[in-house]
Design brief:
By secondary structure, the protein is an alpha+beta fold. It has one domain: Alpha-Beta Plaits (2-Layer Sandwich), CATH 3.30.70.100. About 40% of the residues lie in helices and about 30% in strands. A 4-stranded antiparallel sheet has the order 2-3-1-4. Helix 1 packs antiparallel against helix 3. The longest helix has 20 residues, at about 20-35. The protein is globular and about 45 Å long.
């Protein structure tokens, strides 16, 4: 079964808030989400073309694992925590399934 991914794209519009957001995400949110979801791996990115865009990607072993996480109480708690701590940060979420990987 192919890996599945959960991607969260956040827009941190205020440049003065980006360092604090980065610290919170690195030290609090990403470790909590990765542990709660039981992911294989997780990554975070800041966009080079638009510095306000932050993206986090969580890799799941398969779609069934992703589906369980998306229906979990942990996701509801993580969303509530994010909304509490960063109410001014808008975000979108997307789920993906791996179609192909090319390793060189």
């Amino acid at each position: 079964m192919p890996s599945a991914f959960f991607v969260v794209r956040a827009t941190v519009a205020d440049p003065a808030r980006r360092a604090a957001f980065d610290t919170w995400y690195a030290n609090t949110h990403l470790p909590d989400a990765a542990k709660s979801f039981g992911v294989t791996r997780a990554w975070r990115f800041w966009s080079l073309s638009d510095p306000s865009i932050h993206q986090a990607m969580y890799e799941f072993a398969d779609q069934a694992s992703l589906d369980r996480a998306m229906q979990s109480e942990d996701l509801k708690r993580l969303v509530a925590d994010f909304n509490r701590d960063w109410p001014q940060v808008t975000r979108t979420r997307e789920t993906l399934v791996l179609a192909e990987a090319f390793d060189r």
